[in-house]
Amino acid sequence: MSAVLFKNASVLDGRTNEALADHDVLIENGRIKEVSDKPLTSSSARIVNLAGKTLMPGLIDCHVHVIACLADLGANAELPNSLVALRAAKIMHAMLMRGFTTVRDLGGADFGLKMAVEEQTIIGPRLVICGKALSQTGGHTDYRGRYHHRNVDYYGDKAGTLGRIADGVDAVRRIAREEIKGGADFIKIMANGGVSSPTDPIASLGFSRDEILAAVEEARNAQTYVAAHLYTDEAIRRAAECGVLSIEHANLIKPDTARFLQESGAFVVPTNVTFDALAKEGASLGLPPASVAKIEDVRSAGLAALETLHQAGVMMAYGSDLLGEMHRHQSDEFILRGHYLPAIEVIRSATVNAAKVLGMEGELGVITPGAHADLIVVDGDPLADLSLLIGQGRHIPTILKGVSFVKNELNS
Ligand SMILES: [Zn+2]
To answer: Is the pTM of this model over 0.85?
Structure first.
C-alpha cells in the first residue's frame, strides 16, 4: 500500500474548535501528502470514501505501562522476563486496536519492546519510553514491603518491574544515565507516594530536592526532560520548582500551583480512569489491601483537578495508567474527562497536546502535510459523542499506522 486517498472526510485533529467538513486527504508512503477542501485526485491511490465519518489522528496515550499484566505490581515484578514480554505484546496490540497508534510508557517498557514494534516483530503502537522509573528506597516502585531487604539491584534486570531504586544524588545520576544509554526517551521519577506500592503513603515526598535537581540535569544533558509521579500540591510544586516538566496524575493540585505550572510551561497528564477502575475492580484483581485503602485519597479529587487545571490554562494530555485486566478501560478516560471538560479539549489531549508532550509536534497528532499517516476513522462525530471512541474500537472501522492498515472495514 503506497497511496491512499480519503474523500469527503470530516477532519478533526484539535487544532481548530470544529472539524473541517468535506476535506480530502492524500497519503503517500506512510506520510500525509496533502489536505484539501477541494477534491483531490490520484491515479494510483486506493480511494476510501469517508462521507458522514470523521478522520482523526491516531490517538496518543501519554501514560501507560505496557508491561503491567497484573494489578499487583509486586507480583508482576517477579514474573519471568519472557512471559512479561509476550504479555506486553498482547497488551500493546489491544491498545492499537482501540485506536491508540502511539503510547508513552511511564515505567517498565524497555528498548527491546520498542525495537520489536519498529521491526514489526510485534504489532503495536509506536512506543515512547523512559525505561525503568527511578524511585527511592521505600518509594513507589519499591515492592519489597516491610519485611524484605534483598538488594535493590534485583529490580534492574526484571522485565516486569516498573522501576529501579536509587538513593543519593550519585545513584540518581548513574541510573538516569543507564536508562538513557539503554534507549530511554525521557526520565521518570517517583517523587510522591503512590497507590500501588506498599510502604509509601500518598503524602510522602519521594527524593530530596537535590536528587530531583540531579535527575533534571541529567535529562537536560541528554536533551530531554523529567516526568514525575505526583499527587499532592506540595509535591507537585516542589518538583516543578526543580524543573520537572511532565506532571503525572496531579490529583490533589490547588489553583495556585496550577497557575505556577502554566507560567513555567509544565504540563499535566491526568489518569482518572485508573482510579475509577481500581475502585471497582482492584481488590478482585489482586490489588493488595494496603493499596485498596489508598484509592479514595486520590480518586474524586482527580476529577475535580480537571477543572482546576483547565481554569488555569494548563496543557493536559491523555493518560490512562491502567494495570492488568483493567487495560480494557483505556478509552474510558475520554468519557470521564468529558463530564468536566469541553469535548474539544478532551480530543486535544489525545492528539495535538499529546504530540507536544512527546516533542513530536507536526509529526504526530495532526492531520497536516508531512505528518506520519497515523489515522483513525470514527463512524460519526466524536465531538458530539465521545463514546464513539470507547468499546474496544467498535466505532473505529479504520486504523492506519504509517504505511499499513492495522484495520480497515470500509469498502473502498
Ligand atoms: Zn503510572
So the answer is: yes
